Amino acid sequence: MNQILQKYLIIFLFSISHANEKIDKIEDELREEQRLLRENQARLQLETYRRGFKVKRGYQVAASKSMQLEVKGYAKQYEMTDKVLEKMFMVLKDSKTALIESGYTPGDPFPTDKKIQEALAHVLENTAFFGDILLRLPDITHQIYSKSKENQLIMKWCISICNASEVYDKTGHQLLDLIAQELELIPKDENYINPYKESTMLEKEFAKQKAEGKGHTPQQKKKEKKKKKKRGPKLSDEL
Fold first, then answer.
1. Nearest to 159 by CA among 172, 146, 144
2. What is the largest CA-CA distance in the chain?
3. Distant-in-sequence, close-in-space partners of 141: CB < 8 Å, separation ≥ 6
4. pLDDT digits (tens, 9 = 90+) for 125-177
């Protein structure tokens, strides 16, 4: 009788052990399915966001061109740029805090959590827009940007986030590279020139005049002015 009980007990214990193994295997399979599902959801959301990001970039580029070409006068351009950058860095500061608190680090997969996704989007979009403004209005932007060490650290962090993100395409990474060169975060390429810098435009104008035989350095102009005799005002000077 005892042998029969022992036999059933062994069978019972074996059945429980075998059942536990099956349960563990099922749980592992479910965890793997959930992981793949999360990856697919993240990939789908990434692709959806990429499309929207591309559309927004078109508006941002247009806005930076408008600030450069349609806002007339240095004072007005400075005032507008100052207001835009002030708002921009407030958003970037809050977004940086939100991402750090969430545990998000450069190179992490695109988040599926809406709040984290929103904070990351603010960083990706505003960093690119900052680059547009910096490259098109370099003298004004440098003047404003150089006043805040905090903003400089924020932008350096944002660039690292964008560089590690899967959102930026080849064009986006080229923009990040230009931003880093313009801010001197990395060494400038030998042929790097920002055509919108005042110094670059003056050099270009001087080279043009020189090619036409009219080029004079400021020192040469000063000497020639001293040599010239004073004359009465000309009509062209008065107009």
1. 172
2. 136
3. 81, 85, 133, 134
4. 999 999 999 999 999 999 999 999 999 999 999 999 999 999 999 999 999 99
Instruction: List C-alpha distances in Å: 36 to 30, 44, 58, 209.
Output: 10, 12, 33, 65
Q: Which long-range contacts (CB under 8 A, 24 or more apart) does 111-119 make?
A: 111/42, 112/38, 112/41, 112/42, 112/45, 117/45, 117/49, 119/94, 119/95
- What is the phi-psi region of residue 108: left when phi exceeds 0, alpha when psi lies from -120 to 50, beta otherwise? beta
> How far apart are the C-alpha atoms of 44 and 27, rounded to whole Å?
25
pTM: 0.73
